[in-house]
Design a protein that fits this description.
Elements: H1 13-25, E1 29-32, H2 39-50, E2 54-58, H3 65-69, E3 70-72, H4 74-83, H5 89-93, E4 99-101, H6 103-109, E5 115-119, H7 127-131, H8 133-138, E6 140-143, E7 148-151, E8 157-162, H9 170-174, E9 177-180, H10 186-196, H11 202-216, H12 227-239, H13 267-282
Parallel strand pairs: 1-8, 1-9, 2-5, 5-8
Antiparallel strand pairs: 3-4, 6-7
The chain binds adenosine-5'-triphosphate and magnesium ion.
The site of magnesium ion (MG) has 4 residues, from helix 2.
Length: about 280
């Protein structure tokens, strides 16, 4: 079982190595990287490539670790107990009917090995990763209400993504294999664009990439445009039928690209870029 990338997703050699290392170690792969560098998509692509089901758990600031295991639905039970006739009370008495399985439980009881994505773990509070140590390590947990031990039938292949908004605890890091997705270099970026727009003309692509890296390399940007923003922008350029000339200035100087709102997302960055263009114009 080796992941080689796919025709939707460009995986660099070190990324493939990381995926396969995590699979060999049977440890979660912790993936960091700028927004839009394909962290979430990686798990989806690995699942497709290996032909395994994908279970996703998207973490929010309010998510608790327990929700991934199971929740006890006391409200429904109370309501049922008030509404139920004699025949319904049988159901109410059995607490199992009110245990709602979380994503981890579903992954553990699946009949085939699954890919499990815990997306954006850094959004949760600081206790969250610590609360999952045993589950991730031993792949088991205890349901107190029913006195059951739930053990994984097959160890899922776990992907955990983070945007680095919070530090993760050392004990948690110890249990993971780590990979940082570097921002793609120009060559990799060309391959990525290629899988999205296979028929894009070479000169348009070259001009667009130059514009993109000009914007991205501007020192002092608050929010650098990412891979996914480049792809959005190219989509717009194609939809609007923007000619190559509009992306190139005759004197090889930086100019404001059309539809720049796809790349720059706040007014400070836009002003900064306009200033640069203005200065270049004036000292020729
Ligand atoms: N290596 C790649 N190959 C192909 N497409 C890519 C690649 N990297 C990024 N993309 C494009 O960028 C989009 C965003 O990727 P994704 O949602 O996985 O980013 P992310 O790293 O999870 O971002 P965030 O941190 O904001 O959640 C994808 O839908 C895809 O179109
Ligand atoms: Mg994501």
């Amino acid at each position: 079982m080796k992941f080689q990338g796919s025709d939707q997703y460009v995986a660099t050699a070190d990324l493939m190595l990381a995926v396969n290392a995590a699979a060999t170690l049977q440890r979660p792969l912790l993936i960091k990287g700028e927004p839009g560098t394909g962290k979430t998509m990686l798990a989806e692509e690995v699942a497709t490539a290996l032909g395994r089901p994908l279970l996703q758990w998207h973490i929010k600031s309010t998510t608790k670790a327990q929700q991934g295991l199971y929740e006890y639905d006391a409200v429904s039970r109370l309501r049922d107990s008030q509404l139920a006739g004699i025949e319904g009370s049988e159901r109410v008495r059995n607490i199992e009917n009110y245990i709602v399985k979380g994503v981890l439980w579903q992954a553990f009881e699946a009949d085939e090995p699954v890919v499990l994505l815990i997306d954006e773990i850094d959004k949760a509070d600081i206790e969250f990763p610590n609360d999952l140590l045993r589950e991730i390590d031993r792949m088991e947990f205890y349901v107190y209400e029913t006195r059951q031990l739930i053990k994984a039938k097959h160890r899922p292949l776990v992907f955990i993504t983070s945007n680095n908004e919070k530090e993760l605890p050392d004990a948690f890091l110890r249990r993971c294999f780590f990979h940082y997705i570097k921002f793609p270099d120009a060559e990799t970026m060309q391959q990525i664009v290629n899988v999205h727009f296979p028929t894009l003309k070479k000169d348009l692509l070259a001009a667009a990439l130059k514009n993109f890296y000009d914007v991205r390399n501007l020192p002092g940007l608050k929010k650098k445009p990412s891979t996914s923003e480049l792809i959005d922008w190219l989509k717009l350029l194609l939809a609007e039928d923007v000619p190559v000339d509009a992306l190139q200035s005759k004197d090889e100087k930086v100019s404001i690209p059309p539809l720049v709102g796809a790349l720059l997302k706040n007014e400070q960055d836009l002003t900064l870029f306009e200033k640069l263009v203005f200065m270049q114009r004036n000292n020729r």
